Amino acid sequence: MTRQLRLPYGRQTIDQQDLNAVNNVMESDWLTQGPNVFEFEEKLAHYCGAQFAVVVSNGTAALHLANLALKADAGSKVITTPISFVATCNSVLYAGSTPMFCDIIPETLNINPVAVRKCLRSNPDVVGIIPVHMGGLIADMEALSEIAKANDMWVIEDACHALGGSWLDSKGVEHRVGDCSFSDMTVFSFHPVKHITTGEGGAITTNDESLYKQLLELRSHGITKDPEKVRENHGGWYYEMHNLGYNYRITDIQAAMGISQLTNSDIWAKRRLKLVAQYDQAFETLPQVVPQDHPDNQTPCYHLYIVRVTNRKALYNHLREENIYTQVHYIPIHLQPYYQDTFGTKLGDYPEAERYYLEALSLPLFPSMTDEDQYDVIRTVREFYA
């Protein structure tokens, strides 16, 4: 039986608390950069276990500013994964650096530290690495941090899929995604399909006060009013532009929504974990459906439920006919025409990423998804292969 209602692969969860928070700002004196922005930053930093947070207009802006703050020059190279949204790699270009790809681990879909080490042997001019926590599964930050320190590189965690996740290091110490224990900065997205939403929005966390102050300037045209930084002072109105920054500010309306959403983040994370466990159990005896690996040392907050399937296009179309909408995350970046034309990347360069793409499918996963919704997905997938 075909579902009557469309089931998306992901969607936001909005409640009356969120509506009240937004309405309170609409009735206040502040709509743009007001007190809610700073409150959201403080609460987000505390939630992640970092010293500082800077909220911005979207996740791409966060990636861009993180690259700029680390001052990679035009002659430098930055390593990242081919399996991500194009924004991860584009941000390297925005900052004037050259992106390089390293292949993925097929089970986790995250960047492979072995491939990174191999790449560095022939590319000593690499200055940084941007690992992506694909689908919410946390990359091997301990290994990547060790590589970065040995090669004098910085690390930006692209955690746009992973807010609320945690993991244990080799010493048994627990780390929250965004605490920046093994990176210089961590970047998040608050797009509607992510763990929490501000409509559009993003953030950077860090423990480095110098980077924090740079990020604050860069998100607002490179302007400062800091008495310790200005070269002159003509009065209370006076400001100076010290860097070429951008208008990447977030509004007080969005920040109020973010504060409200953050209070539900852990509840929604548990719901996502339950749905993932139910999917895993349902597909355990179905060899045509292989889920992303789930390492024992992690408690991820899954943004996506990614499976590798046989006959992917036919399954995608069959689910769509049943009003179940799935997605593919992602087309390998190195196969995008722009990257092929600009950098000469081609099919065959990163075999694991390319093989994954041919089989990848993201099934619906979001906190307000009911068990009945999930049953429809499972039933339809099983019927297709039967």
Record keyword descriptors for this entry.
386 residues, alpha/beta, Aspartate Aminotransferase, domain 2, Aspartate Aminotransferase, domain 1, 2 domains, 3-stranded antiparallel sheet
Describe the structure.
The chain has helices at residues 16-26, 35-48, 59-69, 86-94, 113-122, 141-150, 209-218, 252-262, 265-283, 312-321, 337-343, 351-359, 371-385; strands spanning 52-56, 77-80, 98-101, 126-130, 154-158, 166-168, 174-176, 185-189, 202-206, 223-224, 240-241, 289-291, 298-299, 305-309, 360-363. It has a seven-stranded mixed β-sheet, sandwiched between helices. A three-stranded antiparallel β-sheet has the order 7-6-13, with no helix packed on it. Strand 6 and strand 7 (174-176) form a beta hairpin. With 386 residues, it is an alpha/beta fold. It is built from 13 helices and 15 strands.
List the helices and strands and how they pair.
Blueprint: H1 16-26, H2 35-48, E1 52-56, H3 59-69, E2 77-80, H4 86-94, E3 98-101, H5 113-122, E4 126-130, H6 141-150, E5 154-158, E6 166-168, E7 174-176, E8 185-189, E9 202-206, H7 209-218, E10 223-224, E11 240-241, H8 252-262, H9 265-283, E12 289-291, E13 298-299, E14 305-309, H10 312-321, H11 337-343, H12 351-359, E15 360-363, H13 371-385
Parallel strand pairs: 2-3, 2-4, 4-5, 5-8
Antiparallel strand pairs: 1-9, 6-7, 6-13, 8-9, 10-11, 12-14, 14-15
Helix pairs in contact: 1-8, 2-8, 3-4, 3-7, 9-13
